[in-house]
């Protein structure tokens, strides 16, 4: 089901035909979630010329824990225009997983078009504390290990294994922020000091900025995609895998779930020219590059990646959107997009996108 | 435009969780200063133990006692401990492979500074003085340079095993309702009720949320509605809510304020509960110091025609 799509009769090709994102900012208290989201929804709809009534399926990703309110996603639905009634679904995950659900829906033939969006405002709370609530509630969460602490354990494991050292990690952060200078949506743009230790061995420069943001993508199947977009970004394969929740059970220097997802998505069959990796911490990019076999010939995170903008719940969907947008613009022919969720790369999604041959 | 309102918001909940047989044995063991793991089908010992093999997903129940001494497999220096973390003074987060275990346990290591910690360091458990059967029964780890401590071979069976834990969770937020609802709340302070008109369908939403849910477009034009309104539908409440000093039965109603495109809800008073009806004309009653109407009462006007409020039902 999730293997690279065979070009057999009856199997529908599905493409990303539009992508939009907000300018990601440290705080956006003057606007509600739906006010933050609406311009992005309007932008993807306008770029395809579609109206709400033309969208067969809508799927979103967000988290009540960020908002501090139950069923917070229902308010964001106001921005979609859900009357007359629409077919809608929500995942309490990054929007990349909402996109996966929409992709399945399109593959079944139940829908020809889908709107996928996700958003997160980290500014109202303390995201390091909020993320502890996704941990094992019996053995781990009562100790309140925050997201930076867990990533730091992984970074130290990498250093002990001789795979990276602190300067190598700093170089990842520096390259990301330098690339982000060309991305008007990014939060820190251009050089950022490596900073002090947040949790050693990770410095502020190894960690993602905390911010608010939203993203939206339109998917379409077959000829519909060609109607809506000059150069659709065809999803040639997409897969996601998860590892044991106990981080003491896993080899933190490796990411077998990424490897398996990439294999099932067909990522190893031919080289990619671009990779958008959802690596909120510099050490995680080192692991992902190794696992995915990305050499220096691959353009990694030209957007600046999650080290330049990491709106929780949207950052993974943005990776797919950024990869697709490069194909739309003719800057890439075959791109890999990756999204992660959970501590220390626990869950990973890989998509392979291609443009039509030129 | 006036400044956006903000207010502290604390979400706090004591999560009461039941435990299965394996977690019960492990957590009860902590209370009794016994460390237990579970053996998988291929002979590995997992500490902390889980009920299903992470590789094969088979149920596993074979409990094994391991030592309170172990080896650090990775660490991270936490110079600024956060609320709820095991130690209030700077410490190292550590993954510790206890002697006899094949996997590592996450906890804190009490050490003088980052230079005194390394992967491979030997450590031992420091027990909390008061223990209840929770992961926090391990106060932390501490450096240890002695011989490994031999476990006594405990079976994992306890006379009064725990069956659950209470895990308090607290998150603090600064809530902001955003532009549209700030306008609504500020107007209420002046005993006015305002909505926002959709530029597309012209409906007036109250309370406004900044978007028209029908058209999916932003709303901005502020419109004052009421104060009079019409009961569109209602129910009679016969059960007294905790901490509520309103006598039952009372009436809770949907009220379409004049000029509003949809109804909001409120309590109806000043009329016997069994005389409230659809079409009844009402107005808000503000009590001293209140930032919102306490209830709505009849205006004495003739009932509204059904046709005038059917769209807001």
Element layout with pairings:
The complex is a heterodimer of chains A (358) and B (313).
Chain A lengths: L13 E8 L11 H16 L8 E5 L2 H4 L5 H4 L11 E4 L3 H13 L5 E9 L5 H4 L16 H14 L5 H15 L16 E3 L2 E2 L8 E10 H7 L4 E10 L13 H9 L9 E3 L5 H11 L6 E2 L14 H14 L5 E8 L5 E8 L4
Parallel strand pairs in A: 2-3, 2-4, 9-10, 9-11
Antiparallel strand pairs in A: 1-7, 1-8, 4-7, 5-6, 8-12, 11-12
Helix pairs in contact in A: 4-11, 6-10, 7-10
Chain B lengths: L6 E12 L2 H11 L3 E5 L5 E2 L16 E4 L2 E10 L12 E8 L6 E5 L12 E6 L10 E6 L20 E12 L2 H12 L3 E5 L6 E2 L5 E2 L4 E2 L2 E5 L3 E9 L12 E8 L6 E5 L12 E5 L9 E4 L7 H4 L4
Antiparallel strand pairs in B: 1-10, 2-3, 2-4, 5-6, 5-8, 6-7, 8-9, 11-12, 11-15, 13-14, 16-17, 16-19, 17-18, 19-20
Short overview:
The complex is a heterodimer of chains A (358) and B (313). By secondary structure, chain A is an alpha/beta fold.
Structure, described:
The complex is a heterodimer of chains A (358) and B (313). With 358 residues, chain A is α/β, with parallel strands linked by helices. Chain A is 31% helix and 20% strand. In chain A, strands 3-2-4-7-1-8-12-11-9-10 form a ten-stranded mixed β-sheet, sandwiched between helices. Chain A is globular. The model of chain A is unreliable at 1-6 (pLDDT under 50). In chain B, strands 7-6-5-8-9 form a five-stranded antiparallel β-sheet, with no helix packed on it. A five-stranded antiparallel β-sheet of chain B has the order 18-17-16-19-20, with no helix packed on it. The radius of gyration of chain B is 31 Å and the shape is elongated. The two termini of chain B are 33 Å apart. The mean pLDDT of chain B is 95. Classes of the chains: A alpha/beta (358), B mainly beta (313). At the A-B interface, helix 1, helix 5 and helix 6 of A face strand 1, strand 5, strand 6, strand 7 and strand 10 of B.
């Amino acid at each position: 089901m999730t293997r690279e799509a065979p070009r057999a009769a009856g199997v529908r090709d599905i493409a990303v035909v539009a992508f939009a994102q907000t300018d990601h900012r440290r705080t956006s208290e003057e606007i509600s979630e739906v006010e933050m989201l609406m311009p992005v929804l309007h932008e993807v709809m306008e770029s395809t010329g579609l109206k709400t009534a033309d969208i067969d399926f809508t799927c979103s990703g967000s988290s009540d824990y960020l908002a501090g309110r139950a069923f917070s996603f229902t308010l964001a639905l106001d921005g979609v225009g859900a009357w007359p009634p629409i077919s809608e679904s929500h995942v309490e995950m990054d929007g990349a997983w909402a996109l996966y659900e929409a992709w399945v829906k399109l593959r079944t033939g139940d829908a020809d078009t889908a709107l996928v969006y996700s958003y997160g405002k980290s500014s109202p709370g303390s995201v390091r504390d909020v993320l502890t609530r996704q941990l094992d509630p019996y053995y781990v969460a009562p100790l309140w290990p925050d997201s930076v602490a867990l990533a730091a354990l992984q970074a130290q494991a990498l250093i002990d294994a001789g795979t990276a050292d602190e300067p190598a990690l700093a170089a990842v952060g520096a390259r990301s922020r330098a690339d982000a200078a060309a991305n008007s949506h990014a939060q820190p743009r251009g050089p950022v000091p490596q900073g002090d230790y947040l949790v050693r061995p990770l410095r502020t420069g190894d960690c993602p900025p905390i911010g608010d943001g939203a993203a939206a993508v339109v998917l379409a199947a077959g000829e519909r995609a060609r109607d809506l977009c000059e150069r659709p970004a065809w999803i040639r394969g997409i897969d996601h895998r998860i590892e044991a929740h106990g981080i003491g059970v896993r080899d933190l220097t490796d990411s077998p779930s990424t490897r398996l997802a990439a294999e099932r998505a067909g990522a190893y069959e031919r080289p990619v020219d671009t990779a958008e990796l959802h690596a909120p911490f510099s050490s995680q990019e080192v692991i992902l590059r190794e696992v995915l076999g990305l050499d220096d010939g691959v353009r990694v995170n030209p957007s600046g990646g999650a080290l330049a903008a990491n709106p929780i719940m949207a950052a993974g969907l943005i990776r797919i959107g950024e990869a697709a947008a490069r194909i739309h613009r003719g800057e890439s022919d075959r791109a890999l997009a990756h999204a992660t969720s959970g501590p220390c790369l626990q869950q990973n999604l890989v998509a392979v996108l291609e443009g039509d041959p030129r | 435009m006036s400044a956006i309102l903000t207010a502290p918001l604390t979400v706090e909940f004591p999560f009461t969780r039941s435990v299965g047989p394996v977690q019960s044995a492990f957590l009860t063991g902590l209370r009794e200063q016994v460390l237990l793991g579970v053996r998988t089908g291929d002979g590995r010992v997992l500490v902390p133990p889980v009920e299903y093999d992470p590789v094969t997903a088979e149920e596993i129940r074979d409990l094994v006692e391991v030592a309170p001494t172990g080896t650090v497999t990775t660490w991270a220096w936490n110079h600024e401990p956060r609320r709820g973390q095991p130690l209030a003074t700077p410490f190292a987060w550590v993954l510790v492979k206890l002697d006899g275990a094949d996997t590592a346990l996450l906890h804190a290591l009490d050490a003088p500074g980052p230079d005194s910690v390394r992967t491979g360091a030997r450590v031992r458990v420091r027990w909390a003085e008061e223990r209840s059967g929770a992961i926090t029964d391990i106060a932390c780890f501490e450096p240890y340079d002695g011989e490994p401590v031999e476990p006594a071979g405990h079976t994992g069976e306890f006379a009064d095993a725990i069956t659950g834990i209470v895990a308090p969770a607290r998150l603090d937020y600064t809530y902001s309702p955003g532009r549209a609802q700030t306008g609504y709340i500020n107007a209420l302070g002046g005993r006015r009720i305002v909505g926002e008109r959709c530029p597309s369908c012209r409906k007036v939403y109250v309370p406004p949320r900044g978007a028209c849910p029908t058209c999916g477009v932003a709303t901005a034009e502020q419109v004052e509605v009421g104060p009079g309104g019409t009961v569109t539908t209602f129910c009679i409440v016969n059960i007294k809510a905790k901490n509520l000093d309103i006598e039952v039965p009372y009436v809770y109603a949907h009220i379409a304020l004049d000029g509003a495109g949809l109804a909001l809800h409120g309590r109806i008073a000043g009329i016997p509960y069994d005389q409230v009806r659809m079409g009844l004309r009402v107005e808000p009653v503000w009590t001293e110091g209140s930032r919102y109407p306490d209830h709505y009462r009849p205006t004495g006007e003739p009932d509204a025609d059904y046709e005038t409020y059917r769209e807001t039902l």
